[in-house]
Write a structure and sequence with these properties.
By secondary structure, this protein is an all-alpha fold. It has helices at residues 2-24, 30-58, 64-89, 105-143. The two termini are 49 Å apart.
Length: 160
C-alpha cells in the first residue's frame, strides 16, 4: 500500500511538471495540446479498446498454446501502429524543411511489426511444443500395460 501511494505521488508530480511545461512554454500551444490529448483519449476509447476486445474474441478459437502470444503480438503491433501512424502518413512534413520527419517511417514500422510477429511465432512454437510434450507424457503413462499413473517428481512418490 505504501509503494502504491509513493507511485501515485510520483505520477502526480510528473503530471504537474508536464502541465507546467504546457502552460509556461511559449512554443506549446495549450489549445493544440488539448486537441492532441482529446484525440489520444478518443483513439484509446473508441479505437484501441474495441479493437483489442474484438481481437480477444477472434483469437479465442486458436489452440491454447498460441492464444497468448498471438494476443500479445496483436496488442503490441496495434499500439505501435497507432502511435506511428502520424509519422508514416507524414503529418507535419514540409517540403521546405527536409530535416523534418526525415526517416523512412513506413519501412521502420514494417520492421518492428515483423520482429513482433517473429517473437509471437517463436513464443507460440515453444508453448505448443511444451504442451505437446506434456500431452505425450500423459498418454504414455496411461496407455501401457501397466496403466497406472506415474508419480511426478517432487510430489512425494517414487518412480518405478
Amino acid at each position: 500500500m505504501k509503494g502504491r501511494a509513493v507511485m501515485y505521488a510520483a505520477g502526480l508530480v510528473l503530471i504537474g511538471v508536464g502541465l507546467r511545461g504546457v502552460v509556461v512554454d511559449a512554443d506549446v500551444g495549450v489549445a493544440g495540446w488539448a486537441v492532441w490529448f482529446a484525440g489520444a483519449v478518443v483513439a484509446h476509447d473508441a479505437v484501441l479498446v474495441p479493437v483489442v476486445l474484438a481481437a480477444g474474441v477472434a483469437t479465442g478459437r486458436l489452440p491454447a498454446a498460441w492464444r497468448r502470444p498471438v494476443r500479445a503480438a496483436l496488442i503490441a503491433g496495434g499500439c505501435v501502429s497507432l502511435v506511428s501512424l502520424p509519422l508514416v502518413l507524414g503529418y507535419g512534413r514540409r517540403a521546405d524543411v527536409p530535416s523534418q520527419l526525415p526517416l523512412p517511417y513506413g519501412r521502420n514500422l514494417a520492421v518492428v511489426l515483423a520482429v513482433i510477429a517473429v517473437a509471437a511465432v517463436l513464443a507460440g512454437a515453444v508453448r505448443a511444443g511444451a504442451a505437446r510434450r506434456a500431452g505425450r507424457r500423459v498418454r504414455l503413462r496411461g496407455s501401457g500395460r501397466r496403466a497406472r499413473k506415474a508419480p511426478r517428481r517432487g510430489d512425494g512418490g517414487t518412480r518405478g
